[in-house]
Amino acid sequence: MIFQEWIRRARELGASDLHVEADGPVITRVRGKLQPLGETSSAVDLQRTSEELLGAEGWAGFLSRGSADISLEVAGTRCRINLFRTIRGIAFAVRLLAPSISDLRSCNLHPGLRRLIEPTTGLVVISGPTGSGKSTTLAALIEEMNATQARNIITLESPLEYVHMNRRSFIRQREIPTHSASFEQAITDALRENPDVLVISEMRTPEVMRLTLNAAETGHLVLATMHSATCAEALTRICMSFPADIQGSIRAQLADCLVGVLCQRLDYLSNRRLRVPRCELLLGSTGARGTIRAGTFSHLVNVIQSGGEEGMWSFDRYGRWIEQHNEWAPTGTSSAGEDKRSSAVTEEAMDVAELTELVHRLEKRGH
Q: Which of 58, 143, 170, 174 is in Cβ range 3.0-4.6 Å of 179 for a Cys bridge?
């Protein structure tokens, strides 16, 4: 299958993502920049690959919905794949996942983030923009628990990305909608399954947020992810997802159960040829809880700035730790020969105009 060859070559280049569209160029994202793989995709090949990846039932669902999410291993690489339709036909957006996650150190995260998994109850929110490594950080926290604590952990994911093996903890992973029709149903079911820890891959709807808060209040440690640029924005989004007349009670509920919010983005270390997370960490201190109850989320930046001794991190403070830190683990998307291969590949990002021009040339060639 030519798709397997694209994945293999993308992995060798150290790519984090692969983008494919019918009768268009195959594009990789290496260290945050788009660059061509030097291949073109055929509409016929993409349809055949889609049918093989999805199976008969999944293909029928794709035809009716116009998109599909799957996670599986391709050419020895664990991938999260979004298949969707465009004006030119079928397209793939593929995230190449690290081959394995062992702990925070292997993900180049500060070891002090372990404090997020020390409580037995409460809510931990992992946030950041798309592609910032939220799922990897979540997997690292799960593995930290797995290595040191005997807990019953239930994960609810869509799609299921990293596969965890039982070590000290007992981990059961459920994929939505493969193993349960919806996140709402899966959370309700999970609370009857005696969990110590509940992991929710993304809070997207007010109902999922409500159920997540309830789970965190009823004796469970809940880890969840969402999209946001800062810790304050994450908490604001949660509260603003509810009607105005109940936002006060939501703020109180959130303040009571909050363990912490971790927001991250990726920085590129040119001297190491490595992308590492830069984090902002808000912990559920007395000051943070009072600020959340009052609804003055813009003041949380001051709470973080003054909370260094309590273990909080601003982006700037964490950046200084990155500058002083010398021991970095190679990321899962890099390989031993990346430095040699990268010399043959342009370091400059392809902008939208360049990509469009390339597509147009290929279309003319086809005619």
A: 174
